[in-house]
Write a structure and sequence with these properties.
357 residues; mainly alpha; 14 helices; 72% helix
Length: 357
């Protein structure tokens, strides 16, 4: 009769109670941020630093260093590097947002003192810049007309140029066009104004007008529209083009019905960026449109006004009343750009191709 010898037990292996490593609680970034702010205030007061910007920079550095050190002590080096990258992203985001928010807050606070219906519906007329009263109706009307005319010139040219470069351009001509578009992107606004001034007014002999200013603004718009539209068209998958062409649809119709609707959101954003750029230009307007405190509804005859030039004039006047009008005009310009962007996004969403079944 055979017997089985029992096997001696092997070495005991200690298993961890859990596979999850130690992690910081969710509220730890907030606690580190509050602690960094408190320490930064103490350092600023102790060192005699009276600028809140300096306090904020010290707090940002302490937040990054504190988050990394705490993560190394609790979670380890690998997770600490991830938290370091996250902290840097948040700090850079705040450094970009805080000045913008401060600018908007200051403009709204100081511009709302005289920003009302009277201010929007009256011009300076016979008032001088040192007197109280008056409004921006003439400047607002001039800006709307000049931006509209510039968009009528630049948007079709920019869109067609971008379509050619992406869909048709393969030779030396496309390289030349791309080179000049890149050069035009960096042209200062004063150079565009001088070009139109020398050609339109000095050589051809036409008078100062909103149309002359619109031509200079269109020169500044075109490269922005071309580059943004070109990048958006490149993002459209080639499979969509190939599917349309395989069904026997002509290429021009494929571009019109497939490619452009697919990229309409990005194209609209690029157009709005170009409009936002020219809406705040002062140099071409000062050279070509000149100055007119009265209402001129004809952009093709006589000088006009514009909001950026109006802001500059009122600030240069140096009185309390002119300062209030300058801030209110700046607020109107910001509101104008915001309304245009909201309208463009609504149109882009309306015209975008529908997804789903």
């Amino acid at each position: 009769m055979s017997t089985t010898t029992p096997t001696p037990p092997g070495p005991l292996v200690e298993r961890p109670a859990t596979l999850k490593a130690a992690t910081l609680p969710r509220w730890s970034p907030l606690a580190v941020a509050l602690g960094s702010a408190a320490v930064a205030v103490g350092i600023g007061l102790g060192a005699g630093l009276h600028s809140r910007i300096q306090w904020g920079l010290i707090a940002a550095l302490l937040f990054i260093a504190g988050s990394y050190a705490l993560a190394v002590a609790v979670e380890g080096t690998r997770q600490a590097r991830d938290r370091l990258a996250t902290s840097l992203v948040w700090v850079m985001f705040l450094l970009a947002v805080v000045p913008l928010a401060s600018l908007i807050y200051e403009t709204v606070q100081r511009g709302s003192e005289v920003f009302d219906v009277y201010f929007l519906t009256h011009s300076m007329g016979v008032l001088s810049d040192e007197e109280t009263g008056g409004g921006i109706y003439h400047a607002l009307l001039g800006t709307l007309q000049q931006v509209l005319l510039a968009s009528v010139i630049a948007v079709p040219i920019g869109l067609l140029t971008a379509i050619y470069l992406v869909e048709y351009g393969r030779g030396k001509l496309s390289k030349v066009i791309t080179f000049f578009v890149d050069v035009m992107t960096g042209i200062p606004s004063i150079v565009a104004g001088l070009f139109v001034l020398s050609f339109w007014i000095l050589i051809l002999g036409f008078d100062y007008s909103g149309w002359a200013g619109a031509m200079a603004l269109a020169i500044l718009m075109m490269p922005v529209i071309v580059r943004s539209t070109e990048e958006m068209l490149k993002l459209v998958p080639n499979e969509l083009r190939e599917a349309s062409l395989a069904l026997g649809v002509p290429k021009w119709r494929t571009i019109l019905k497939v490619v452009l609707p697919t990229a309409i959101g990005g194209i609209t954003t690029g157009v709005m960026l170009s409009v936002a750029r020219i809406a705040g230009e002062t140099a071409p307007v000062l050279l070509l449109v000149w100055v007119n405190p009265l209402i001129n509804t004809n952009p093709f005859d006589g000088s006009q006004a514009s909001l950026p030039l109006y802001v500059y004039q009122q600030y240069a006047a140096g009185t309390d009343a002119s300062y209030d009008r300058a801030w209110a005009a700046a607020l109107a310009l910001i509101a104008f750009i915001m309304i245009l962007n909201l309208a463009a996004r609504g149109i882009a969403r309306w015209k975008a191709p529908k997804t789903g079944r």
